Amino acid sequence: MSSSSSNGHLLSSASASSSAVMSSHTPHDVEAGPRLHHPDGLALDDDDLPAGPFDVSTTKNASLDTLKRWRQAALVLNASRRFRYTLDLKKEEDKEQRRRMIRSHAQVIRAAVLFRMAGEKPISTIEVPPPSGGEYGVGLEQLSAMIRENNTSTLQQYGGVKGLANMLKTNPETGIAGDENDLIKRRHAFGSNTYPQKKGKNFLHFLWEAWQDLTLIILIIAAVASLVLGIKTEGLDKGWYDGGSIAFAVILVITVTATSDYRQSLQFQNLNEEKRNIQLEVTRGGRMVKISIYDVVVGDIVPLRIGDQVPADGVLVSGHSLAIDESSMTGESKIVQKDQKDPFLMSGCKVADGVGTLLVTGVGINTEWGLLMASISEDTGEETPLQVRLNGVATFIGVVGLAVALVVLLVLLVRYFTGNTRGADGNVQFIKGSTSVSTVVDDVVKIFTIAVTIVVVAVPEGLPLAVTLTLAYSMRKMMADKALVRRLSACETMGSATTICSDKTGTLTLNQMTVVEAYIGRNKLDRPDDITHLPREVFSLLCEGIAQNTQGNVFVPPGGGDAEVSGSPTEKAILSWAVRLGMKFDVVRSESTILHVMPFNSQKKKGGIAVKRDNSEIFIHWKGAAEMILASCSRYVDFSGELQAIDGEKDFFKRAIDDMAARSLRCVANAYKRQDLDGVPFEAELDKWDLPEDDLVLLSIVGIKDPCRPGVKDAVKVCTDAGVKVRMVTGDNIQTAKAIALECGILSPDADTSEPHVIEGSVFRALSENEREQVAKKISVMGRSSPNDKLLLVQALRKQGDVVAVTGDGTNDAPALHEADIGLSMGIQGTEVAKESSDIIILDDNFASVVKVVRWGRSVYANIQKFIQFQLTVNVAALVINVVAATSAGDVPLNAVQLLWVNLIMDTLGALALATEPPTDHLMHRTPVGRREPLITNIMWRNLIVQAVYQVLVLLVLNFWGVSILGLANESTDYATIVKNTAIFNAFVLCQLFNEFNARKPDEMNIFEGVTGNRLFMAIVGMTLVLQIIIIEFLGKFTTTVPLSWNLWLVTIVIGLMSWPLAVIGKLIPVPETPLATYLRRPFRRLPRAHNS
């Protein structure tokens, strides 16, 4: 991350524009915790206080001024490290400039990229571009030029789309052969759908970043000065110890820090690779095949639907109402209609509306999108609320630490120059007129080194990075739990979620749909696939409507065998039913020509198609939600094939639909209308034709079973116990929704199912804004909802203070996913537009995985709190001990090297041990963490104070009376002092080791539960203990320590061990419910009020 971004002086045009479009209201957060009340009855609201720079409750859609403000307010000693994972605003600006440049200089940039790629390869592996034409009838350069220039005349010269397909040896209907040899030839001739990615930062870069810490640089300078003076006064043999040991300790700190940061970087790189690896369907050998976007080749036939990303450059084979959003390439949010007049599609764009089929003509580096991706490196930086708040904590501790260091520096210098400082031998160190200049400089350097080391310990640069450490760990583990995190902050925010608005289909249910009930006219079939007495004309109409009005496909292997049905789960269920009835999919489709398609619309809940038969008859077929289709029907076909008026039978059909819905079946109807030729527009105007949807003839109603997912009822119960309300928001019939909600446990058997607890989207939509806010909290199930209803529900809940998580899979869900605090898109059924608008992708579409994300969210917050409690205990103890000792005795018991080792334990190793604790069931028995709840809770303050006071008292007692207590009175003053200081150092480190166990369970008595399951924690504690033994016993010359006797080892171990029973006793001390921060804020709260009055 460049330091330019860390200073926050550069604005991102992309982020600015998105912030302008999306709403950014920040309502009072009721669920962040109860409003606090003054004893006098006055409500205390955080919003009454002037917002501090670190008071950022959510960073999703946060303004850039807010992000700049907290950066500039932070006390920072190493900006490149502290701000590494924040948004790099300069890169965003560069990205926009590169996009514009690529649009105008694509050929030059492509040549430069190819030249760079060639330079990075061994000579033997450089691929020579194939000659124009080659094995295929058209060459790479010709295809690139045609797409780049949108040259329709060139396309016509090739014989249109069919002629181009022949030249590329592909079939517009069945696609390429798709065998391994065919794919290799195509990749050799036209390239692969990959692009050279900029290499991530190497280990040396992270070493360099770790060096940038101002205090470490000062310590190195001090070490060099100490080294020179030591060698000059004591000779090379002994003179290098002091300076060399400090330099070695600094290098160790830098190396361990860089290693930890480098590992985090690799984890983020792997997660980014997962995000880019889009899965899509292509037609190969007549069947639909699911492949990675990287495996697309020139000649592939790709079906495009609403929400898809165009995977490569290409030409439109066929399409209906196809609209493309080209903003990702042009930078302008303009929707472009694609048809035979403008058939060229660019890679990276999104399908905004309609359907179509793409013939791929350019892939990878031969597309403008590939050039753009190759010339920029993706920035993973992003603010998270915890990161911002921890910067505030780090700044506060840093200010205190700097003040303490200055006090220690002044006190030590004054005592030294006034002759009140004595050496280990008891002699006065400075005597005016007799102490040499070199000795004075050496002593002053040592004093200065101590002060700077206190700053190193006191300013926790690694505290904000502990967030990214635990997030990197959590994100990797969440991948195993089928959740891909797109936005870091979503991990945290899920810990605060108070409600989850979940889809039904595929999330709460299995998405394995089967037709289990069917009506033809008024007749219910004994078995859904029994049509023995169905007239041929009715069967023909039914098959035509099903085969043509679908985005699915049926592939029958040439050698026979079971048909392979593809498409959405609903499409697959209906197509499979029709195949069982005897439908010949390819034959039926060949008997009529599609004139116009109106794709399924989530508002209308239906989709239609107009077809022209070989005898020139025009039929319009509609398919959709049964009650919606029924409302448009005036007649129905009875079982004998006769048309009957529907007026007297509508109640019968409604009862049939309600009966199926009450048994949790999804009801889908098919209807048709015969259209006169006079009512069909000319070919040029077909795309604008609104298919007539009244006076339809009802053909069939089918009931589709989609069983609940196993374990979903338990997952809903876990959420309820954790204080998270689960709401079902579905486009299905209200009766179906109610039945599934009862089955899943969202509604209890004795629950109130009247409005507004169970409500239809249209009813909710019709309410005023205030009424919606009042009703939203009560809603458990919303049926027949549109994506806009979901958005309105999210907005109403957020205004009431809820932290809202929303699941969605369709393109129209994007606004709700973006508006929600956490947007959860579906990995299997979700469109690319939905995924890009979401914060987390649920890879298996399973609600149980959503609950696991909540657990991980709470775990992130809990782990950070554990680390803060541990680190602050060390901070407080180390600072108090050194200040008291320095001011009273003129010396400090913990020297620079020892403090650097403590800093390593406290900062990097402590973060690794505590920030990687796996989530426990205990987390799901708490209420959600409030977004404005104090980061340091009263429980943490209690634990911290108990341990810090104990450590300070014991170690100060040892410092002042340790010689007599430890039985060293008969030893020489020099030896007794160094043994005493070694014991203090050893006891202090062991206190931190044992306290690390206490930090694991801040509010539980059993601190050892699950400890052996966290192998990393045990390894770090074990490694720290072994290194401490080595330091004490073997590295005394570097750390100014001496080997301790078994008795003293036992004494120091007992001192450290006492922190365990002390922690148990401390947890018996009750703490007030009102956060300590509230009492501290009250004086500041009164100041502006007094000023105003």
Structure, briefly:
With 1093 residues, this protein is an alpha+beta fold.
Mean pLDDT: 81
Number of H- or I-type helical stretches: 40
- End-to-end C-alpha gap: 47 Å
Q: What is the rounded Rg?
A: 35 Å
> Rough shape?
elongated
Uncertain ranges: 1-50, 123-133
| Largest sheet: number of strands, sense, barrel closure | 9 strands, mixed
Tell me which oligomeric state these chains represent: single chain
Class by helix and strand content? alpha+beta
> What percent of residues adopt helix (DSSP H or I)?
40-55%
Q: Quote the beta fraction.
A: 5-15%
Number of strand segments: 28
If you had to describe this structure to a student in words, what would you say it looks like?
With 1093 residues, the chain is of the alpha+beta class. It is built from 40 helices and 28 strands. The strands form six sheets. Strands 12, 13, 16, 17, 18, 19, 20, 21 and 22 form a nine-stranded mixed sheet that branches. A hairpin with a 4-residue loop joins strand 17 (606-613) and strand 18. Helix 16 packs antiparallel against helix 18 (462-480).
